[in-house]
Write a structure and sequence with these properties.
This protein has 117 residues and is mainly alpha-helical. It contains five helices and no strands. It has a domain of 57 residues. The longest helix has 20 residues. It is elongated.
């Protein structure tokens, strides 16, 4: 039994009433989070024979906060730093010289040896 909501479901509620409903749901969720799994399992066993009233079920999907556009835009400063690689190696160096800036020679030797096995 799926319950779907629309904006029409909340037309008769005031903002204060909706806030109160949200607070009740949050309180209920906090209380549920404090219970252990054993307690919840025991309650579920007791309630199996009980008949639930569909009006008592709060459609949580309807109470979820919705995303709205940002009220205040965050200013983003222009990038003004120089770009490109910055290093202290001469242009005559080989790519392997750059590799050794990150990994030691022993790693290269071990990788080359193990690759040949």
């Amino acid at each position: 039994m799926a319950t779907f909501c629309s904006d029409d479901d909340f037309i008769d509620y005031t903002a204060e009433e909706l806030d109160q409903i949200l607070k009740e749901v949050e309180k209920y969720e906090r209380e549920e989070a404090d219970e252990s799994d054993v307690d919840i399992a025991d309650e579920n066993e007791d309630e199996e024979g009980a008949v639930s009233d569909p009006e008592d079920d709060i459609p949580l999907a309807c109470l979820q906060a919705t995303w709205r556009p940002a009220v205040n835009e965050t200013p983003v400063r222009a990038f003004a730093e120089p770009t490109g690689p910055h290093h202290n190696l001469p242009e005559t160096d080989k790519p392997l010289d750059y590799f050794f800036l990150f990994l030691p020679q022993s790693f290269y030797d071990t990788a080359a040896e193990e690759t040949n096995h």
